[in-house]
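Worked example 3. Consider a protein that binds flavin-adenine dinucleotide.
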Amino acid sequence: MSDQTFDVIVVGGGNAAFCAALSAHEQGVKVLVLERAPKAQRGGNSAYTGGGFRMVHDGVATVKTVVPDLSEGEIANTDFGEYTAEQYLDDLGRVTQWYCDPDLAEAVVRGSTETVQWLHGKGVRFVPRFGRYAFKHEGKFKFFGGTVVEAAGGGRGLVQAEYTAAEKRGVQIRYNAQAVALLRGRGGVQGVRVVADGVEEEIRAKAVVLASGGFEANREWRARYLGPGWDMAKVRGTRYNTGDGIRMALDIGAQAYGQWSGCHSVSWERYAPDFGELDRPITASRNGYPFSIMVNAEGRRFVDEGADFRNYTYAKYGRVVLEQPGSFAWHVFDSQVEHLLHEEYRSKGTTKVQANTLEELVAKMEDVHPGRFLETVREYNAAITRDVPFNPNVKDGRCTQGLAIDKSNWANAIEKPPFAAYAVTCGITFTFGGLKIDTTTHVLDIADAALPGLYAAGELVGGLFYFNYPGSSGLMAGSVFGRIAGREAASHALSLKV
Ligand SMILES: Cc1cc2nc3c(=O)[nH]c(=O)nc-3n(C[C@H](O)[C@H](O)[C@H](O)COP(=O)(O)OP(=O)(O)OC[C@H]3O[C@@H](n4cnc5c(N)ncnc54)[C@H](O)[C@@H]3O)c2cc1C
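Given these inputs, the predicted complex is written out as structure tokens:
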């Protein structure tokens, strides 16, 4: 047994964990963070993110509270719009088909702006999210979809700032430390069993916060809970999120909650490695599909590529790709829209084919039926409402009419060479099912009663996301609940001291 005891142990080393650790530390308690990964791979999926935060804002006034060095030029050339609490709640409800737990949603939304400001106060730098969430149109950036800021340096920058803030405050961090079980005493959860560098030990504390991510990196659980075929998906992020925190809590009677058969998954480079690469976090993303047609092995379109802005569809279209024959697809563009594609389409390791005719293109597109592909493009081109102008910043209503699967927006003809096609498969980001918590982040048992001394935040919380996900709400939810969890765990620990 370890000779050290702590007030609060935080299991996990990503964004939710560090929000919990920093917040617990504010209460003057002794905090230990257990990170399963080695130091070089610390930070969980949070380190792989683009660092985007979806928060309630009223435009430039809110943005300036977290980006104080916003320049006059940026202000003059940018329309940040506004994003109200009602819009945020509506987005969460709409994309989750209204399954989203209303109390948890309300807590995230109402706490969002203040929590980003709190993180800024801890030393996290933010910048406007130009590029991914705003296209330049007629000389001005216009934001769409509610996400206006990201951590400087993306996910790596965020995690680096959080570790630095914690280290500066004396929070202890142990790497290569895998929590495997929760310890219980009369007062509830009182520590964890850990395997650190291959040796098992028990570490005591007065409260435990679980922030160890979902089970997306667990091939067996994916097949078991998400369904057949999911064992074959590529993992976009860390290899260390195998559902340990969820299992440990279920083992002591916690309630399983949310959509265990659901996950966030996207179009991802077809031949990407099995797990994410920390130094190349988003190069395998393929997010330009709203301007493409997506075709499968049969040469057919299978989804409305322009149903909504990318950040309201990308998280559910990975599943659609997984369900295609052979679990792959191609994004096809012509030269009129290629300039709208981000860096990721030009990165090393991209499976791209290019040609001056569609016949030559499809001959290069591995495993695609050529005749049906040419027929698909002909029919698609003929169905476009060409009198509606194209505008990537709004849902422009430039659609097709009369196809079996129409495209609702951004329907540009595939007619101007050179043509390009990119091969994709399904990349899983994180899982939706997890533990049930209340709005103070207590982990609940099957009778909805709090398990004393046990708190949870981040990806392993169930009930927020179902079927789909509004982009950039993962970091936000983890931050809001992580901050609450740290405060609650610390005050529980302090209450046991008197
Ligand atoms: C490529 C990519 C891009 C993304 N982009 C965005 C974005 O821009 N905005 C956004 O909001 N979300 C984004 N997400 C989703 C986002 O990553 C998550 O919602 C968020 O980071 C989850 O944070 P977390 O702290 O719960 O989990 P993680 O950051 O995954 O942290 C989990 C931690 O637990 C550790 N761990 C696991 N098991 C154990 C154990 N037994 N003992 C000890 N430690 C353990 C892991 O090593 C890890 O450090 C993205 C995800 C990916 C993969």
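Take a moment to read the result before moving on. Residues 473-497 form the longest helix (25 residues). The chain is about 30% helix and 20% strand.
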